[in-house]
Amino acid sequence: MKTTITLNAVALAVALGLTSCGKQSGTSQAERTANALASYVAPGEKDEYYLFYSGGHSGQVYVAGIPSLRHISTIPVFAPYPATGYGFDEESKKMLGDFTWGDVHHPALSQTNSKYDGRWLFVNDNANNRIARIDLRDFKTHQILGPIPNSIGNHGSSFITENSEYILCATRFSVPLPKGRVADPKDYEKEFNGMVSGIKVDPQTGEMKVGWQILTPPFDWDLGSTGKGPSSGWAFWTSYNTEMAHDTLEVNSTQKDRDLCAIVNWRAAEKAVGDGKAQTMDGVPIIDPTTVSGVLYFVPIGKSPHGMDVDPSGKWIVAGGKLQPATTVLNFEKVQAAINNKTFEGDFRGVPILKYEAVVEGEVPVGLGPLHTQYDGKGNAYTSMFIDSCIVKWKLPPWTDAEKKDLTKVVLDKVPTHFSTGHLVVAGSDTTNPYGKWCVAMNKLSAGRHINVGPAQPESSQLIDISGDKMKMIAEAYTEPEPHFAQILKVTDVQPAEVYPKDENKDPNAVWEKEQTGVTRNGNQVVAKLTAIRSRFTPDRIDAQVGDDLTVHVTNIEQTRDMIHGFGLIEHNINMVMDPGETKTFHIKLTKPGVFPFYCTNFCSALHQEMQGYLVVWKPGEGPSGASAATGAAGGTK
Ligand code: RUQ
Ligand code: CUA
Predict the structure, then answer these.
(1) Model pTM score
(2) 576 in contact with ligand 2, CB cutoff 6 A
């Protein structure tokens, strides 16, 4: 009951736009000018950083520049995206499988020695239990792994280990396992389980596969992060349903003052599997922590915590208690000592619970609704406040005795945000060497701070300069639904390709010369191989018949940057887009007779409009037939 009142008060505060962080600053003319210049990137100049932010249930990843906050590019991941032809050619269709959407939450840049190595970006799909890998060589999705077996609600993910050995994931939901087994939700505690998954990443190629899993009680695992330095080999997750409620979670999962968070020794998990201590479920080695010790520990954290973020030194782990006006700081050295000395306060289903007082450094009174914490590498932490709508800067330990006695003293600064900040990101926070300088607040509500676009409002991102003692709100931009976490990468730390070099195109159906192009028939299999270059397709005519299986391979033989061609086929729901040097393929069954123009969908030259051709679908038995006739029908292009 008490909780309901609290939550209603929270909702009211949000609705009224009340914040306790003080008045909006930065409005004097001099400040406006300074802020404008700080984020201004003049025409022809470039941003200094990439901001990769999750697109939530749009299923995509968006790329913006910092400091301009301009949207630069969309990377389609879990949903078709006609603008780049994603989800129309055979390869991307196969990656998407049966799904046309996903729910992207937490992007993770690949790391070597706990620093970004500029190779890959991994993102999770909360909805369909998948992980995708974007290659930063071409900013495209190259693998979608999943649905992951024995995993439901892949939200506590994708957390990358210090040398990209694993993507670690924890389940938001619990179900009877293996998937497909049915039990009554009333028997939740007995029949349902959650899971922590270690997704193994190939160090050379980035190719992912499911490594192992750790069975957990049916808590709802929330956000987490991975260790480094002293906490190397460990990972941490909060949970918000230690009550193991299965209905009316708003009330029933907020009963306890502290929830059990998970401390996972992933190196020990890897070793346990190597030592044959796992049992297989749905093809995956599963570790049961009630019988395999040293893999999983619990620690109580108040109250309904959300983020759990390891600082750049690897020593401090900060959890944000959604319903407690404080962040909890764990000291990993104390965690290690508590494990070694068995300083436990009992166990839950055989998993030791670390004694709270033995591992906690302090609770910092940051304000209402602390969610996520980021770091600048200079001893400061920045916490997003969902209810107070602000970012709070505070000082990490070590603290003086006076500070320890009164931790309000370590709260250094607050800057209001608009409104209801979810995630925030500080450039490089999850590495040992944050770039610092910039923080981006990702706000859930923009509440009409923009020109009116009807009842649905965009989310907002706000750029905050954190280079000085006081944070400075610099700029604001609006984003597609719905940004969760983001990563910031220095532009000079990645080297994307400008074209696909011809000699690296290994597609067996790539064609580069006119003589290699054409249309061939084998039974009812018709194969067309086309080149695309400003401003023509060769051949520009494909003859086939109703009932044929048509496969079309198009190679963009340009080797000039940004010379992109599309292949849109009228009334067949096909739009492929080929970058310079790229070959793409689509396959369709021809079901209706007619003459169907195809055309280049990506503006490429003054004669782009002329870049077109015809697919002639004859009735069965009509038109040119047989291989030679079909080839000949390429009509003068040979
Ligand atoms: S969660 S607003 Cu999906 Cu990242 Cu914290
Ligand atoms: Cu090719 Cu437009």
Answers:
(1) 0.94
(2) no
Question: What per-residue confidence (pLDDT) applies to 168?
Answer: 98
Using DSSP bridges, classify how beta strands 549-556 and 525-533 pair: parallel, antiparallel or unpaired.
Answer: parallel
Tell me the pLDDT tens digit for each residue of 376-425: 999 999 999 999 999 999 999 999 999 999 999 999 999 999 999 999 99
Kindly state if the Cβ of 603 falls inside 6 Å of ligand 2. yes
Closest CA to 388 of 357, 423, 352, 415: 415
Distance of CA 238 to the CA centre of its chain: 19
The alpha-helical segments, DSSP class H, found in 59-132 are: 90-96
Q: What is the 3-state secondary structure (H, E, C) of 4-40?
A: HHHHHHHHHHHHCCCCCCCCCCCCCHHHHHHHHHHHC
CA distance 596 to 117: 47
- Whether 423 is in the pocket of ligand 1, judged by its Cβ within 6 Å, is yes
Bridge-based pairing state of the strands 175-176 and 192-201: antiparallel
Instruction: Name the nearest CA neighbour of 154 among 108, 90, 91.
Output: 108
Q: Is 306 in the pocket of ligand 1 (CB under 6 A)?
A: yes
Q: Considering only CA atoms, which residue is closest to atom 2 of ligand 1?
A: 422
Query: Could you give the CA distance from residue 126 to residue 147 in angstroms, rounded to a whole number?
Result: 10
Cis peptide bond prior to 398, omega within 30° of 0: yes
Q: What is the DSSP letter of 249?
A: H
Q: Which ligand is nearest to the CA of 154?
A: 1
Q: Is 186 left (phi over 0), alpha (psi -120 to 50) or beta?
A: alpha
The DSSP call for residue 377 is: S
CB distance 222 to 241 below 8 Å: no
Nearest Cα to 168, choosing from 231, 227, 240?
227
